[in-house]
Amino acid sequence: MSEPASISSGIAARYATALFELAKETGALVALESDADALTAALSSSADFGTLISSPVITREDQARSIAAIAAKMGLSDLTAKTLQLMAAKRRLFVLPHVLSRLAAMIAEEKGEVTAEVTSATALSDEQANTLAATLKARVGKDVKLKTAVDESLIGGLVVKLGSTMIDTSVKAKLAALQNAMKEVG
């Protein structure tokens, strides 16, 4: 791991742990989970938000004002809003994506659930997602939260990553395996 990545990871871990512990002590884990999900969605859908948290050109004061307005508009909990304000004051907003992923992992562990990354050729219906979650729950013995993505290049099927296990049932993978088998023969 490179040194800057290690430093960022360490900073993110400290903020995530502090925020998680405070939320746990005050019984605000549900609100924290909701806030983390909302911030993750905002980061993935808004390039401007990503620029706000990572640009060295934006002053601390502008970051703090902007993040306060965003927190108020999103209806974030007081604990999350104050943490974001502190991060802005300390010029640490650039680690927010790492903080959010660390928080998601800590909350999932606290709830006894695991997250499965599912990539499919087309968007899964609610029924398909529920069936997949139930099947994975039966396999791992814990509640499974699905993080879905669409990749049309798969042609069909799914790629499921659950912890260190990856299950690839995509048509793309099957075609690649068939192509390799044909190369070995010829």
TrEMBL record:
Lineage top rank: taxon: Bacteria
Subcellular locations according to the entry: Cell membrane; Membrane
Keyword terms of this UniProt record: ATP synthesis, Cell membrane, CF(1), Hydrogen ion transport, Ion transport, Membrane, Transport
Topological relation to the membrane, as annotated: Peripheral membrane protein
InterPro entries in UniProt: ATP_synth_OSCP/delta_N_sf, ATPase_OSCP/d_CS, ATPase_OSCP/dsu
Family annotation (Pfam families): OSCP (PF00213)
Physiological role: This protein is part of the stalk that links CF(0) to CF(1). It either transmits conformational changes from CF(0) to CF(1) or is implicated in proton conduction. F(1)F(0) ATP synthase produces ATP from ADP in the presence of a proton or sodium gradient. F-type ATPases consist of two structural domains, F(1) containing the extramembraneous catalytic core and F(0) containing the membrane proton channel, linked together by a central stalk and a peripheral stalk. During catalysis, ATP synthesis in the catalytic domain of F(1) is coupled via a rotary mechanism of the central stalk subunits to proton translocation.
Family: Belongs to the ATPase delta chain family.
Protein known as: ATP synthase subunit delta
